[in-house]
Structure formats: C-alpha cells, structure tokens
Amino acid sequence: MGINENAGGGPTRPSRRTFLTASAAATAAAVTTSPATAQAVDADTLVPHGPGQPAHPQQPDRELRALLREVDRDRIEATVRRLAAFGTRHTLSDQDSPERGIGAARDWIFAQLSGYAAASGGRMTVQLQSYVQQPASRIPVATRITNVVATLRGETAPNRVYVVTGHYDSRATDVLDAVGDAPGADDDASGVAVLMELARVMATRRSEATIVFAAVAGEEQGLYGSTYLAGQLKAAGVDVQGMFSDDIVGSSTADDGTRDPRTVRLFAEGVPTTETPAEASVRQSVGGENDSPSRQLARFVVDVAENGATGMRVRVIYRRDRYLRGSDHIPFLREGWPAARFTEPNEDFAHQHQDVRVVDGVQYGDLPEFCDFDYITRVARVNGAALWSLAQAPGTPKGAIVVTTNLTNDTTLRWQRGTEPDLAGYEVVWRETTAAEWQKVIPVGDVTEVTVDLSKDNVFFGVRAVDTAGHRSPVAFPRPGS
To answer: Which part of the chain is the Fibronectin type-III domain (predicted)?
Structure first.
C-alpha cells in the first residue's frame, strides 16, 4: 500500500512504507495516490505531495436542501418590521407596555417561538431566562434582563449543543437614551429574524444534537444577556461545541452605495481568549495560531455553507470581531467554547446607533427600509447549513494529540472515540503550514490511533469524525502528548 513521500523533497515514486498503523485489533485501509506532477508552490491553490486525496467541500444532502428551501423571505421581513415597530427596544426601556419598549418585543418573540415549539412534538421548549442586573457599566439602575431561549433537544447526543443568537435590544445615538426611537432593524432585528426563522423550520425536524436559538438582551449595554446565557450553560455542564452570533446581518449596501449581496463575513479568533500561559508556551513551540477551535469552526462553515443551496460566499476574517468592537459570541469565547460572529460585508454607520432624523437631506436611523430582506434570507440559509450540519454530524473529536514520545520522521496521532451510534470512523486531514484551509484527507477507519508517513515538523494535522451518512465533524487540532 505505497504512497508518495512527503512534499519536502522526498522521492515521488510510491514508497513501500505503510503510512498508518491501527491501535488494538482495528485496521484501516491506506489510500494510494499517484505521484504529484509538480511541487506545490502556492499552498492555497495547489495540492501538495503526500498521503491522501484532495479535500473537497461537503455538499448538502437532500434533507438539508429541503430545510434551506423552507427559509421564508417574507417571514423574515415581517419579523424585522414587527420588531422595528416597537419604537425602541432599549434594555432600559418600558418592560410592561404591550405596544412599545423591550418588554413588548420580548413577549412577542416568546409568543412566536412558542408557536413554533407547539409544532415540534415536544422536542422544542421555550423559556424566558431572566435575571436582575445590578448597576454597572451602562446600567445605571437595577434592571431585569431577559433572554428568550428556544431549545431543540437532540435525540442521540442531547448534551452536545450548538447555539445561535441575535440580540433584540436596540439603541439610539445616546447609549442611555431609553425613550427615544431606536428601531434597530439591522442592529439587530435582522439577527433575531435569522434565528427565529431557523427555529421555525427546524422545530418539526429530528436533530441528533441540541440546538439553542436565543434572542438575547443587553448587548448594546455590554453583552449582559449573552454573558448570562453562557454562564447558565456552563453551570449546567453543557458541552457547547459551536456558537454563532448574528449581529448586523441586514444589509448588503455599504455607506458609499456599493453592494455585495452574496458575501457574509464570519469573524473567528486565532489565539483562544482562554489560553493559559502553559498553553501559550506550547503554541509558541509547535504553532497553531491559526488553528484555534473557533478557526476550525469557521473552516467548517465554509465547507458546508458556501454552495449553491445558500448562494453565498463566507468571507472568514481572522479576528475576534470588528476592530476594537464586540458581540455576543465573546462571552462564549470566555467560557472556552468555539464561537464566531456573522455580519454583513460592509456597514453603513448612518443606520447604526443613530437617532432617527434627516440632516441635509440624508436619512439617519436604523430603519427597515435600509434592510435587504433577500440578503438576510441568504444569511439565514448560511446559518441553517452550518447549524444543521453540525447537529447531524458526530461531535468534534476529543483528546486529539500528536505523539511526541520518540523523534521520528512520521507522525502518530491519537484521539478518543466518540459515542454516537452512527459513528463510522475518522479522517486525518493535513495542510502545508502556509495554507489557510485543509488540503488533503486520509480516511483511516474506526480507529483511535494512526501513524502517517509525513513529518509533523513540516505540516499541520487534524482529525475529524465521519458518520454512516457521510456527515463530517469540525476538525480537532492535536496537541503534543504521549
């Protein structure tokens, strides 16, 4: 079962060395490849020498395509317009009026999500998750903050959880103005509309893992609602393996009038927020600045959601968020979970955090007429493709390590076997250190150890799980171990 030697100048004729060995009694078939015809010089466009086959995106299956077709543009528009019609949804605004303020918006969202849950056969539940925030930054008086949380319970892996949020609070120019109009159509009725529409179309389907759809409050005042949500999930011992914040996903038009209706940005941090000094020391030694769990989550999104079923390009930004700004994924990063933030390709700041007014003939304010509802619908499909693919695939492998007991020119990887009943096996992926995306894939079977005839000194490795239907997990980036 010969393969090519690694791309670092080795022979191009097939080697007789076996590229993998399986632990215990398990076995796996090696993949035979033909010799490469040219040395890779651009790691992002050319496939390098070495074991495995070129990596390809995961195409949506029939079930996912049907789900994405059900995402309804008119419902999304109606949701954005209804939320904007509450006048203001400022966190400090009226909580008791049935017509205006954050309380009216909260109750409307709860009623809508409860209606979706009623069609779920008991799989989806909805709750008002409240606490009293004592005076703090941008909270001058004790204030009740309430998240509206719909949970679609997984049937085979209920403790493995994926979260999507949008914040339903809004603001005007003055962050403490709790009475002036703050329609918040783009920021962030658009994100709330995404999660509500996904909750509707997923409620009637059976999911393997649990999906949480959360309309959170207090974002504009300091990420209060999402911080509380993340804390509650942490206290409950939930295994959050992915989280997305949809914040400002309502417009495809920039402030200069140019349009980019087929791109959504996805912000994903490199060095983890929770990295310890010991972990930093390891990273400095072996690399991995571009291989955090959040970067692997972002790669997964591109893999499953950049296709004809969504009609979108996912532009991954190697940064935690926009320059010196932040959103509701940050509290999840602080808990050590993979998280990323979706936002529109170019922002128009005349329609964010602005009093509704006209100055020199220019309309200011975050009004529905500046939203692109076709665009929001496509963003919802990107989210839907990512969330559903995550929830139906096996979980990200745990305990992945590169064995460093001995100095060798091959690489031994180990990981823990998952518990999913439909788990079929694993794949090793690898790429040149200068490449942004995984380039080669080696199917290794249902094993927990493999030795690859390729030096860990020259490339980056990862491991992902595969189920019997061909669904693939996000990649686990291995750490040094024994």
So the answer is: 393-482
Quick: pLDDT tens for 417-431: 999 999 999 999 999
Please state, in angstroms and rounded to a whole number, the distance separating the CA atoms of residues 73 and 108: 19
Do 106 and 128 form a contact (C-beta atoms < 8 A)? yes
Residue 300 pLDDT level (bands cut at 50, 70, 90): very high
Going by C-beta distance under 8 Å and a sequence separation of 6 or more, which residues neighbour residue 427? 441, 442, 443, 444, 463, 464, 466, 472
pTM of this structure = 0.91
Does domain 62-392 fall into CATH 3.30.420.40? no
Give the CB-side neighbour count of residue 411, counting CA atoms within 13 A: 25
Domain 397-480 in CATH 1.10.599.10? no
Residues 386, 391, 397, CA angle at the centre, nearest 5°?
100
Residue ranges, CATH 3.40.630.10, the chain = 62-392
Choose among 194, 191, 110, 179: nearest CA to 146. 110
Model confidence at 13: pLDDT above 60: no
Does 217 have pLDDT greater than 90?
yes
213: which 2 tokens?
A: 């759809």
Q: Is residue 464 classed as helix, strand or coil in its secondary structure?
A: strand
Instruction: Give CATH 2.60.40.10 domain extents, the chain.
Output: 397-480
Percent of the chain whose predicted confidence (pLDDT) is above 70: 91
